[in-house]
Design a protein that fits this description.
Length: 184
């Protein structure tokens, strides 16, 4: 029997050359809970990728403040595509965008949970050592004013890599998603 879970991820968008972080709740239907932080480095902004703003909460300016996933199941690969639109608000072309999840609890790093998380996009996303890279293997770039859609997937199929667990742990843990613009 599938166990329905609800997950809320907080998002911060950056219009600065530095890092911005925002706290939110990453909760499930059981007693498990964690804080989700997104750290965006460079001049990137996050807005809803869908007209109906499915899976997101926005502020008064229309920027994404939370990602809300309501159908996360154990023993499933839950994929939430086209959640947010990442826009280059800077003056320099971005060659690649890197996403990296960091998961910790009271005892330290939770590699098992981190391995279940990945970023999805319309274009190719490569993964190496836990870093998910958008635009790496293509001739595409993110020029000033350009945008790219992305989503989040959670693999709770223990037998299928990456992953190795079939349910999120019951103890509290913190999740941080680092988003970096790369110029090569």
């Amino acid at each position: 029997m599938l166990n329905r879970r609800q997950v809320t991820l907080a998002i911060a968008s950056a219009a600065l050359g530095g890092a911005v972080a925002s706290a939110g709740a990453f909760t499930s239907g059981s007693s498990a809970a964690a804080d989700m932080r997104v750290v965006v480095v460079s001049e990137l902004a996050l807005t809803p990728a869908r007209d109906d703003e499915a899976y997101v909460e926005t502020d008064e300016e229309g920027e994404v403040t939370e990602i809300v996933l309501k159908t996360l199941n154990q023993r499933a690969d839950s994929q939430f595509d086209r959640i947010a639109l990442l826009t280059n608000n800077g003056d320099v072309t971005v060659d690649q965008v890197e996403f990296e999840f960091e998961v910790t609890d009271a005892s330290g790093e939770r590699e098992d949970v981190r391995e279940t998380l990945r970023v999805t996009a319309d274009g190719p996303v490569t993964t190496d050592g836990g870093v998910h890279t958008l635009l790496e293997s293509s001739e595409e770039t993110l020029a000033p004013g350009d945008s790219a859609e992305f989503g989040v997937a959670v693999n709770l199929l223990a037998e299928r890599a990456p992953g190795g667990i079939s349910d999120l742990p019951d103890e509290q843990f913190d999740v941080t998603l680092h988003v970096r613009a790369i110029r090569t």
